[in-house]
Amino acid sequence: MSSTWELQAQKARDILDDSIPKQWLLPAHQLPSPEEKNVEDFARKSGLLSEKELAITDLSATALVREMGAGRLKAEDVVVAFLKRSVLGHQLLNFATEFLADRAIARAKELDDYFERTGKLVGPLHGVPISVKEHIGIKGLTCNAGYVAWVNDIAEEDALLLQCLEKAGAVFHVRTNQPQSLMHLCCSNNLTGTTLNPYNRTLSPGGSSGGEGASTGFKCAPLGVGTDIGGSIRAPAAFCGSYGFRPTALRNPMTGAKAPEPGQEAIRGVIGPLASQSVEDLDLFQRAVIDQEPWDIETSLAPVPWKRVSPKKDITIGIMWDDGCVRPHPPVTRALKHTKAKLQAAGIKVVDWEPYKHDHGWDIISAMYFPDGTASQRTLITQTNEPTLPLTAWSFAYSSPTPLTIHESWSLNVQRDTYRDEYHALMKSRGVDFILCPAYVGVAAVLYESHYWNYTAIWNILDLPAAVFPSGLRVEKELDGLGGDGGFVPRSETEETEWKKYTGPERYEGAPVAVQLVGKHFRDEETLAAAGLVNDEGEGEGVQHE
Amino acid sequence: MSSTWELQAQKARDILDDSIPKQWLLPAHQLPSPEEKNVEDFARKSGLLSEKELAITDLSATALVREMGAGRLKAEDVVVAFLKRSVLGHQLLNFATEFLADRAIARAKELDDYFERTGKLVGPLHGVPISVKEHIGIKGLTCNAGYVAWVNDIAEEDALLLQCLEKAGAVFHVRTNQPQSLMHLCCSNNLTGTTLNPYNRTLSPGGSSGGEGASTGFKCAPLGVGTDIGGSIRAPAAFCGSYGFRPTALRNPMTGAKAPEPGQEAIRGVIGPLASQSVEDLDLFQRAVIDQEPWDIETSLAPVPWKRVSPKKDITIGIMWDDGCVRPHPPVTRALKHTKAKLQAAGIKVVDWEPYKHDHGWDIISAMYFPDGTASQRTLITQTNEPTLPLTAWSFAYSSPTPLTIHESWSLNVQRDTYRDEYHALMKSRGVDFILCPAYVGVAAVLYESHYWNYTAIWNILDLPAAVFPSGLRVEKELDGLGGDGGFVPRSETEETEWKKYTGPERYEGAPVAVQLVGKHFRDEETLAAAGLVNDEGEGEGVQHE
Q1: Measuring CA to CA, which residue among A255, A209, A208, A262 is closest to residue A372?
Q2: How big is the CA angle at B166 (ends B161 and B170), to the nearest 5 degrees?
Q3: Does B230 count as an annotated binding residue?
Q4: Closest-CA residue to B409 (of B369, B459, B456)
Q5: CA atoms B408, B412, B414, B415: torsion sign
Q6: Does B232 appear as a known binding residue?
Q7: Choice among B232, B242, B276, B395 that is catalytic
Q8: How many other C-beta atoms are found inside a 10 Å radius of the C-beta of residue B403?
């Protein structure tokens, strides 16, 4: 029996292997040894990319479009540069599930022809290579969503969001990895294996959009598309030194994103961007999609146009140092202090944010993740008898053993709405516009150790827009020791588990430290503007962003 | 045992009786005999209201505010006029559950004081008396939602929508009746009995906002507040010659409207206005509420401002003559033809609208009404052993005998969204901006005969904004005979049942004939503007609106 699932899984690996542009593969002996943890500089070291190609892959989407619009870059050169970097990144990090080289290059040529003919760009994302998480369907290609059982499923249409991006000029060049079940903040499955973190290959790239974390973290794409129901965009962005945004639900179209619980809407997954270079690119992505009024096709979306807002300094940011449940690791706290100092120096009002019932929020959302007692997921796994991976089992354990009754699910909906209204009222009464907080309990998780989600999931249950971006800091041996915190007494078993993972900075060597900025419901534009401001204020003093 | 529920129910009647302003009660012998069906003119005939009071109750909310703003009317005089008319209406139609005379008059005096002091109105609804369906909570007052079991339940807060209306200047003067379970298009319960139709007291005022139908139909209030999950605003407006509007869901705040299934959100009930005089007043109501940005309190609402739009003649209206399931009665078809001719004469483009799978739409919505197999409702009924009324039992029969499984409920959600997207795409591909259609299979239902809901419920499952307004026609003996239709062969048992109810115009004598105009999702403002246009085009040729 076990050979059955393995044969099925092999199909996914065959698709991947067949799709790799072989001409750009580096011979195994030229690759860094597996013991080399940090590979962030290997694109330059490898010699695979020319200086021009390295320069291209250092550009943001915004800059790329500007250069193409000025006729200084061609879309074909751009996509080839990012494809080469993707092939290399895949050899180092195992982040891809399928390369789309031929069609991407053909598409780029079309765009170049169009520009040559008309002198115009086709749209705001003209020629921008974008990597796409595998479970977001592309017409005619398989879509397995991390399940062996779905390895033969072919998407009938491009996901609506991809249609919007493509109309705006985007070029999809690589599809990326995700964990079995899509329900953890790591990136491992029985199909194409485990994705690694470019800053430290003993660390996870995060999940579930872990392939996107690695893709944007290694600059295989200036923009990527992920999904997020508990942190699945933001954890990868945070772990990999990228930028990530979880929009308010019902803004970006979800049609064509495959998952085991279609019709589950108590807690909505969202689709959104990761970016390798800037908050500005997150806004560019959102603007390109929402300007197309996707609600005129996917009618359940809220018909709320994407506003143009400028960053304002006249705001109040509340800093949440701790969620009241699980204390962040020392480098995270240091990054918050660092950011606070920068904000204060820039004249931005900063206050402390006392968390409000985050344990209650977690109780609600964790009960909402598997309302059918994981039957949908287990059925898929049982179909092929693929092994249930440890973090899959761990997330399934949140589920009640039996399906929720209709009344239990209604009660959760009421609790959810009440909690949302209360939290929003609290932000108003405290005069806080944005909350700055950890993106995760630590800087990243060691592979297979992503357990505590609630620094991100809390904003899913509250349905607040949340951006993650680098603080500019890295884990530092000298600064991030346990020091006086060695005797910290945890408040719970969960906190103890998480705290014990931080034995010291060595375990997380090389990792960038992210922060998260959270705005009010549907204030997505203001949240990105403020995130850009916070991010910019962190610059200019020798702080590095990649 | 049976005495228990009767004792409980008596409390609701005591509340009502104690609240009636006795000074305005007409002695029984001055009331029309029960055999007198049509009482629409009785306000004048009764002698209870002065000429000035009669003139006041003939004004729209818009006109009333204008007059108060010009200092030509006082809020106190206005509310007293409507209170007197309400007391009379109640004696004729049994539409009230509680009068709020003292507080309404006190509030009106405050408004008059404010105006006298400042020369300003407090808001766009300054001094407008508004009747409110009973299950929309008012702080400190009982809220039974049509169930004897809830006769002692006291609302802790005003419903959020009422708070908005009150801030805008509204005066609540009477609470109104609803059916047991809130789930039928008639208006009868075991608490305060059955409400009648002012145009023909053998007819139903519609439901479930039947008290509001009678209130606005008899001009006891220029505006009323109802709720609608299958036609509960629109059927009463249609049956009673009033105006009614079902907004898109998630526009008006629902907090504080009491019903047995809190947290059920697969099919959302909405709260919205009825008006005695004009479409313009429906827009006034919506504007007054949404201008207050209720989404800043009830965060699940869509943050979509209320646009100011002008009626455009450059539109295409598709006329749906029949929903493909149940043929409308002859006067309804005549009203559509009449309206079509008016629109064409006014140069507005009119085409036929072929319905799209309305039976499928009904299958979805009827399965969504009672996802717990009516357990919530039956538990309430069993608590007191109040009798289950025939139309309650009839609507409960839509329910599956057992609760839906989680997977069944998800499947319905997917079907719903697919159907919505398909229907919207069809309107676009056919170039149709609005659909003009019957508001009900007939002009009204005979008491206890409201069975077929799908001329209204279809727009609930599609979540489209829909306005109901008088066609200007009435049932006519000469014009509405069965004629050549006597031999019509029904397509189904349901159609046969509905068709057989129309034995001829005599059965519906005196009833006004309404039509319904439906717009696209979230195009509430455009829908009301177009409804105003259609309604206006119907005027000017001797057509009467009341």
Answers
A1: A262
A2: 115
A3: yes
A4: B369
A5: positive
A6: yes
A7: B232
A8: 18
Strands (E), A313-387: 316-319, 349-352
User: Cβ distance B216 to B274 under 8 Å?
Assistant: yes
Task: Determine contact, residues B160/B255, Cβ cutoff 8 Å.
Answer: yes
Element containing residue B349 per DSSP (H, E): strand B349-352
- DSSP one-letter code for B446: B
Q: Does A261 contact B410 at a Cβ distance shorter than 8 Å? A: yes
**Distance (Å) of CA A105 to CA A14, A109, A229, B3:** 22, 6, 33, 82
Grouping H, G, I as helix, E, B as strand and the rest as coil, residue B480 is coil
* Tokens representing residue B131 in the block: 């009747």
B307/A contact by beta carbon, under 8 A:
no
B99: β partners: B174
The yes/no answer on whether domain A2-22+43-297+313-537 falls in CATH 3.90.1300.10 is yes
B395 is an annotated ligand-binding site residue:
no
Spatial strand order in the sheet of B466-474: B96-99, B171-176, B129-133, B223-228, B270-275, B243-246, B466-474, B512-518, B434-437, B316-319, B349-352
> What are the residue boundaries of the structural domains of chain A, listed by start?
2-22+43-297+313-537
Give me the count of residues in chain A: 546
Measured CA to CA, the distance from residue B273 to residue B173 in angstroms comes to: 16
Check residue B171 and report its DSSP letter.
E
The number of helix segments (H) and strand segments (E) in chain A equals 18, 13
Token digits of residue B394: 């009839």
ipTM greater than 0.90:
yes
Closest C-alpha to A415, from A348, A468, A453, A462: A462
Tokens representing residue A442 in the block:
């630590």
CATH fold label, B2-25+43-537:
Amidase signature (AS) enzymes (3.90.1300)
Least CB–CB distance from A263: residue in B265, B296, B413: B413
Give the H/E segment covering residue B108: helix B101-118
**Owner of token pair 């200092």:** B71
Beta bridge partners of B96: B176
Which residue among A60, A131, A181, A208 is the active-site one? A208
Alpha-carbon span A233 to A207, nearest angstrom: 7
Task: Give the pLDDT of chain A (546 residues) as one tens digit per residue.
Answer: 447 999 999 999 999 999 999 999 999 999 999 999 999 999 999 999 999 999 999 999 999 999 999 999 999 999 999 999 999 999 999 999 999 999 999 999 999 999 999 999 999 999 999 999 999 999 999 999 999 999 999 999 999 999 999 999 999 999 999 999 999 999 999 999 999 999 999 999 999 999 999 999 999 999 999 999 999 999 999 999 999 999 999 999 999 999 999 999 999 999 999 999 999 999 999 999 999 999 999 999 999 999 999 999 999 999 999 999 999 999 999 999 999 999 999 999 999 999 999 999 999 999 999 999 999 999 999 999 999 999 999 999 999 999 999 999 999 999 999 999 999 999 999 999 999 999 999 999 999 999 999 999 999 999 999 999 999 999 999 999 987 777 889 999 999 999 999 999 999 999 999 999 999 999 999 999 999 999 987 554 433 433
Phi, psi for residue B516 in degrees, rounded to 5: -125, 135
Is the backbone peptide bond immediately before A208 cis, with ω within 30 degrees of 0?
Answer: yes
Interchain pair B424, A300: CB under 8 A: no
Q: Please give the structure tokens belonging to residue A79.
A: 């996509």
Q: How many helices (H) and strands (E) does chain B have?
A: 18, 13
Cβ neighbours for B319, distance < 8 A, ≥ 6 positions apart: B336, B339, B340, B350, B351, B352, B353, B435, B436, B437
Check the CA dihedral A405-A408-A410-A416 and report its sign: negative
Cis preceding linkage at B208, omega within 30: yes
Exposure on the CB side of residue A9, measured as CA atoms within 13 A: 20
What does A452-483 look like in DSSP terms, one character per residue? --HHHHHHHHTT--EEEEEEEEE--TTT-S-G
How far B406 CA sits from the closest chain A CA (Å)?
A: 6
